[in-house]
Specification:
There is one protein chain. This protein is an alpha/beta fold. 47% of the residues lie in helices and 12% in strands. The chain is built from 15 helices and ten strands. The strands form three sheets. The protein has a six-stranded parallel beta sheet. Strands 4-5 form a two-stranded parallel sheet. A two-stranded parallel sheet has the order 9-10. Strand 9, helix 15 and strand 10 form a beta-alpha-beta unit. It is globular and about 60 Å long.
């Protein structure tokens, strides 16, 4: 029950975020403020005080590299491999594989390189940059759960700016979906959609809710509507939830991410708690000053630098 090694290295705000009661908790963590440290130590503190069972804990992030860092930090905190830590896609795929195995169903093949199917559907003389632009639009639509026929209207409503021809996007998108169905292929976004579909089965959902009773999400500003719906499906009536993110590091809107899920978290969870980390341990005061000039000052506290003074950056 000794939590001293876990919380002693933390400052006051980090300690508050680590020890906050298990209501829905939002940690708004400015750049360089130790958000991953807080998330992993929150798990370790909860396990040490027996508020959570690490074997029923799910920690989510967005890249394999970030997931590897999560697992490494948890191991250093003594949690070995008891916590399920990984990307949304990896966790969804693990859920699907287990369900397919239980039912004896033949699993579809995973399409890990979409260009292999998608690019041959485009005109051969189309420049590679234009092909990539079409793929980006399909990715955006999938992240927003928009079907091919609804793409033009959705893109217009969102003020979507792209060099891709909307008609070509619709035609290619529909052909891509048809080709996958005929060849029994699933891509990474299909993994999320299929996991959501399976969780509509109450018995299966109860099993997943029991398995993941404590859910934590890193980089929550990067979640897109498809991932958010899967997250909601993973949460049961007794689940605890902690999300960590920073609206000023939200740079993936072009790819379907929606920072409103972070901004509106307090409205969705009025009984939750919001903790703000403002101590920056990464950058000099001069770099923070330059960075803050391009951010809206009205909706954020200033970050405090904890590095020695440095040269003023030149911005051109």
């Amino acid at each position: 029950m000794d939590v001293t090694p876990i919380i002693d290295p933390l400052n006051d705000a980090q300690r508050e975020a680590v020890t906050a009661p298990h209501e829905p908790v939002l940690v708004v963590a400015g750049a360089g403020s130790g958000k991953t440290r807080v998330l992993t130590r929150r798990i370790a503190h909860g396990a040490q005080t027996e508020r959570i069972d690490p074997t029923h804990t799910l920690a989510l992030t967005f890249t394999r590299r970030a997931a590897g860092e999560l697992r490494d930090r948890l191991r250093k905190l003594g949690l070995t491999d008891s916590v399920s830590a990984g990307t949304f896609h990896a966790q969804a795929y693990a859920q699907l594989r287990a369900r397919w195995a239980e039912s004896g169903a033949r699993a579809p093949d995973l399409l890990d390189r979409r260009g292999r199917i998608l690019f041959p559907l485009l005109p051969r003389d189309l420049p590679r940059a234009a092909k990539l632009a079409v793929m980006a639009e399909i990715d955006w639509a999938r992240a927003r759960r928009v079907s091919p026929d609804l793409y033009p209207a959705a893109a217009q409503r969102s003020g979507r700016q792209t060099v891709a021809d909307p008609d070509l996007v619709v035609e290619t998108f529909a052909a891509y979906e048809d080709r996958k169905r005929r060849q029994r292929l699933v891509d990474f976004d299909d993994l999320l959609e299929l996991a959501i579909r399976d969780l509509a089965d109450p018995a299966h959902a109860r099993a997943q809710h029991w398995r993941h009773r404590h859910v934590l999400v890193d980089e929550f500003q990067d979640v897109n509507p498809l991932q958010f719906e899967l997250l909601r499906s993973w949460l049961g009536p007794e689940s605890t939830l902690c999300v960590v993110g920073d609206p000023h590091q939200a740079i993936y809107a072009w790819n379907g991410a929606d920072v409103s899920f972070l901004d509106e978290f307090p409205k969705r969870h009025p009984n939750g708690e919001t903790i703000v980390l403002t101590d920056n341990f990464r950058s000099t005061a001069q770099i923070l000053d330059a960075a803050e000039r391009v951010l809206p000052a009205a909706d954020r506290p200033s970050l405090r630098a904890h590095r020695p003074e440095g040269a003023a950056p030149t911005v051109s």
